[in-house]
Amino acid sequence: MSAERRSATLESTTTIASMSTAAPTDYSVAFVTTPDSQVATNLARRLVEAKLVACVNIIPGLTSIYAWEGKVNEDPEVLMMLKTRTERIAEVTRFVRENHPYSVAEVIALPIADGNASYLEWIGKTVPGTPGAK
Question: What pLDDT was estimated at residue 48?
Fold first, then answer.
């Protein structure tokens, strides 16, 4: 076995060993679209400062094609990818709805089934749990 292959095998084994033991529903990723980078940056900073999310990735250059008020629209948008505790999704959604320029803001959350244990632990340390939550 070549040194490169041994290294790849070791990396693969290490990755598997460092996966999280957190319950699949402890953490979530949420997607939010905004009309531009300025809105996304403002929302992201405020969400992080409020400790509702640990991190927001802002992904520009998105094109959305959607049905709205009886017609098909095509608009440039910016995608926000938020990482947080699942128990905080309702608060994140409320915050986005109250501070977003769209009348119907997109907030779609999915549970994080698994991942880098130290990253998921960082989310947990950065975003406090809600009192009384599991």
Answer: 98
